[in-house]
Each structure stands twice: as structure tokens, then as C-alpha cells.
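Workshop exercise sheet. Pairs work together: one partner reads the sequence aloud, the other fills in the structure field after running the prediction. Swap roles for the next sheet.
Pair: D.N. / O.F.
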Amino acid sequence: MTKSDFVLGGTAAMGAVVFTNPIDVVKTRMQLQGELATRGTYVKPYRHLAQAMLQIVLNDGLLALEKGLAPALCYQFVLNSVRLSVYSNALELGYLQNEDGSISFYRGMFFGALGGCTGTYFASPFYMIKAQQHAQAVLSIAVGFQHKHTSMMDALLHIYRTNGISGFWRAALPSLNRTLVASSVQIGTFPKAKSVLKDKGWVTQPVLLSFCAGLSSGTLVAVANSPFDLLTTRMYNQPVDEKGRGLMYKGLVDCFTKIWKTEGLHGMYKGFWPIYFRSAPHTTLTFVFFEKLLHVRDHYVFSQPRN
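Structure field:
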């Protein structure tokens, strides 16, 4: 894998997020509705994925489905470029190989998770702004704390002026836990699901194979990762004081405890279905765009004669 592949991998993920960002908007709002309220005591403007999208379009316009797109694009580029870089370098240095030369499953999982966590840490400011902009809505369908960012740059400046550099990483820990679980489960299940589907002859077309494997893998990813995803959203979106301290949650443990006591297990899995339905199309689209970008690079760049 060349250095340009890292850039192409990040760019491919950016292309995918253009199509999956609306699902992410719904996920964020589902995770925030009824925050720290017992079940049945609050209004639910978002009931399921299709209804939520329609609700957003009718009340806030079609473009509202793409709120937070700019930070989402930046997040995907940084995350996937760093993740690919870490994993590829580990492969080239021989850290993934067993003594017989085969790739170790557990080492692959470890370096996949390491790359994911490293990329997530560097991309954390973009994820925070993305979550805050996803939550912004007109009053009639607003849920969670409403930040008043007018753009990604406005958000960056506001956070820096209010809380300094440290404000960009004030909720990085739950985000790292989220990525660690998701990367480990996905790396452990996606290739296996793809292999089984192909070996059994059930699916052979490459794009459809990736989509079906993504659906299979996405089930376990969503089950394992939903609570961590919820904690990340709540921690990133909460209001803070002038020192950057959360006004609703003191930290990850406090956030988990309060949600568990007031919302229960059901609260931990708010936004489950958007997480699940986003997994397969995002993985598939990233794969498709990456293959197309490689083709364009090889055909139009490397095929050009040099002077």
C-alpha cells in the first residue's frame, strides 16, 4: 500500500459519508431524545428511521438531513487515513505475521483497533462538532442541548475561545472506547462473514458481497457498540462551563450511571437501528469508491509517460 492509498482511503470514506450522513443525523437525535428521562414521560418526535427522516424534512427542510456534513467529512478523512496508515505500516514491518508467514487474526484485530483509536483521537474535534450540529433543529423537533453553531469554523472558534485547545478533546475517552469496540468487532466479523458468503457460493458479486457481509457484521457491531456510541453522543453534546466541565455528566462513569438509573437498558440502545442500517451501506460505498479511485489513479496518473 502506497502513501497515496491512505489519502484515497480517507477520500473514499468521505464519499460514503455524503450518502450515510442523514442516517447519522437521525441516530444522534434518537440518542438525545428523552435524555435522562424515564420511559414514557417525554415526547418522542423521532420514532423510527423513515419517520424521523420525514419529520426532519417536513419541519426543517431537505438540507437538514445533511447537517454536520463538513465535520463528518473531515472526521472520516482523518480517521480512515490514520487507521489505514497504522495497519499498513504494521503489515509492512511484519508485526501481523505468524512464524509461518500467515496473518495473525489477533494481531490484525489489535493493530486494527490501535489504528482506529489513533485516528479517532486525532479526529475527535470533528466528531464533537458533527454531533452538536446533527442535534441542531427547529424548536418543534429539537432534542438535547442546542448548540448555536452556524458552521464548522464557527464551532471551532467558539470552542477554542471558550475552553482552549483542551476543549476539543474533552470527551475523547468515550469516543476511543466506541472505536475500540467497533473496530475490534468489525475486523473480527466482516472478513469472516465475507469469506463464508463467498465460499458457500451464496453471494459472489463483489459489491453485493461487501454489502451482505456488512449487514451480517453490522448486527454484532450495533449490539456491541450502541451503548458506547450513545455515551459518546451524550458527552460531546452536553453543555459545559467556562472550564470545559460537563454540566450534565462529570465523566464517562457518571454518564453511564445516570443513563442506566433513569433510562435503563432501553436508553442504552437508543439509536440502535440507525447504527445498524448505516453499517452496510457505509462499508460498501467506501469499498466501491476506493476501488474507483484506485482505478482513476492507476489509469490517469501512473499510466502517464514521464519526461
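Discussion prompt: The two ends are 25 Å apart (CA to CA). What would you look at next?
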